[in-house]
Model the fold of this input.
Amino acid sequence: MNNFAESTAKKAPFVRIVKRSELSSRNRLWLQSLSLALALIAGGLFILVVGQNPLQIYGTMITGSFRNQMAIQATVRFTVPLLITTLGVTLAFKMKFWNIGAEGQVIMGAIFASYFALFHSDWPHL
Done:
């Protein structure tokens, strides 16, 4: 074996992937807070590039979502399918499946839900 092969065999890999142990509640809360802050900052930078004030836009989003009963209902109506899609993608990732078709799943779910609501409404309710 030459010197080059020996020197490369002894080096540790540049990127090493290992399974993490369970995070403590404190570390999990810190990581989630950091993720939320970085998402708001990234969105704020994009809003700045477009030429708007991020604080004003975020404030309008929050007040607009909860300004009256109809706005709250609309917020819930748009949030529920997103949460259900997130749950499906989360389960797929937990099972080590790479799922990039969440939009298609939502569309197919809506089609089949509409079909059963229209043509099988006489089924007994549970």
